[in-house]
């Protein structure tokens, strides 16, 4: 009787920075439950007992399995209480809403390798998190550090990953800082959702930021957040060589 191939989902010990290489290298590894284990696809030859990477023509199976895993992961994440993003600002503080969106001609994985980790925030503003708690990309995790003379403290409230994108939301504690050449600024609270989506059949990526902030100066706050998003994305796009997608999807080359 000939050997058969068995497809299995392995649980892996969590490790910061690990990615699900056997399914989609651009997506952060997914938690499979309370034990925080990660998942990957492996293949086994039932005769020899050896394992190996699935060949290219089995990608469809990998995508299907990942979709099922993501669906389960989303269901499991419902155990975390929903935290409203539309902040109720304290007396004397005014609400500010900022929405920025960008599209670039580069596949999702180019961006996910830089932005896919809640703990790694240095790409947005240049200030790294020096203190973290919990598990990266699992709601309840926290990050904190020094930035522009102040101390920031953020808590992850939601995280979602699927085959063609990911998004996460965090809330921040009161934060006081001063940008170079600017007066001191204070935010009583803030919340932000970041979303990265594959578009144009994998040729390009759509990015958007939705931010809610409580502050004493709405105009200065709006400018600060909008410029932060734009400068950060311009830096990433420059680093990976991703031109702006100004219009419809890139046209495929015609073949005679």
Automatic annotation (TrEMBL):
It comes from the Eukaryota. This is Uncharacterized protein. It comes from Mycena metata.
């Amino acid at each position: 009787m000939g050997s058969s191939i068995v497809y299995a989902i392995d649980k892996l010990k969590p490790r910061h920075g690990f990615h699900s290489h056997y399914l989609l290298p651009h997506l952060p590894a997914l938690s499979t439950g309370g034990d925080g284990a990660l998942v990957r696809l492996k293949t086994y030859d039932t005769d020899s007992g050896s394992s190996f990477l699935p060949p290219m023509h089995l990608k469809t199976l990998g995508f299907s399995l990942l979709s099922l895993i993501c669906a389960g992961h989303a269901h499991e994440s419902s155990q975390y209480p929903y935290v409203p993003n539309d902040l109720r600002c304290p007396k004397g503080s005014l609400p500010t809403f900022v929405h920025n969106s960008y599209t670039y001609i580069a596949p999702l994985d180019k961006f996910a390798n830089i932005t896919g980790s809640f703990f790694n925030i240095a790409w947005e503003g240049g200030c790294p998190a020096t203190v973290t708690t919990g598990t990266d990309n699992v709601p309840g995790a926290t990050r904190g550090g020094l930035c522009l003379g102040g101390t920031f403290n953020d808590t992850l409230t939601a995280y979602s990953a699927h085959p063609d994108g990911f998004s996460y939301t965090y809330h921040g504690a009161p934060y006081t800082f001063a940008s170079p050449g600017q007066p001191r600024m204070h935010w009583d609270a803030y919340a932000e959702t970041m979303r990265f989506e594959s578009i144009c059949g994998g040729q390009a990526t759509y990015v958007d930021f939705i931010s809610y902030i409580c502050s004493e100066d709405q105009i200065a706050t709006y400018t600060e957040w909008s410029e932060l998003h734009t400068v950060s994305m311009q830096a990433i796009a420059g680093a990976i060589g991703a031109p702006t997608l100004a219009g419809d999807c890139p046209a495929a080359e015609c073949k005679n």
